[in-house]
Amino acid sequence: MLLRPRPRGEDGAVAVEAALVMLPLFLVVIGILEMSFLMRGVTAANSAVAAGARSASVSAAAGPCGSACSNTATPRLAEVTVDAIERSGTALPSQAIEWVMVYDADTNGMPTGQTGGFDVTKCTLNCVVYTMKSSGHLEYQSGAWNTTAEVNACVNDPNRTAVGVAIRAKHSWFTGFFGQTYSFNQRNVMQFEPLPNDSCGKGKHA
Fold first, then answer.
1. Rounded to whole angstroms, how far apart are CA atoms 39 and 80?
2. CB within 10 Å: which end of the chain, N or C, has fewer?
3. Structural domain spans, the chain
């Protein structure tokens, strides 16, 4: 049986059909890769805030920093928080962190006076902000938490104080198809671990 030669126009049609199929497939593969990298960053940021919140929650009686910290307005619990985040060893590159906020959390898990989202300019009372410097370390930027003696760390007390840790991180898109960068927030809120009965209440510890 003799094969009929393919008309010249069919070669072009096959090429167009292949392009129409391959382009959407290529975009789907790129989208999957980009979202995978983004989810890795979000997971890493979530792990970092969890590590920070755990450290902060056991430091209710750590007291003020004084000369041992980068700024005397910061409590010791805030310093151990950022230390824990830096030591967490997550997949989140240090320079991807824009800021870290350590704060006295309200009933909604937010800093006092903030409801629609995190705003570093409103982080002033019992709220401290650290920013990532070129050195690769988090350093004090703004805010104050002059005393943690008012923290209520009594077990089974419905008014026990909670501490919140929030991170704003920047993800760089791999291909640039979705822009250059995407910023997102992650937070973790924990109640302070109970202190002994004779020192758990407000004004009874450091």
1. 27
2. N
3. 10-191
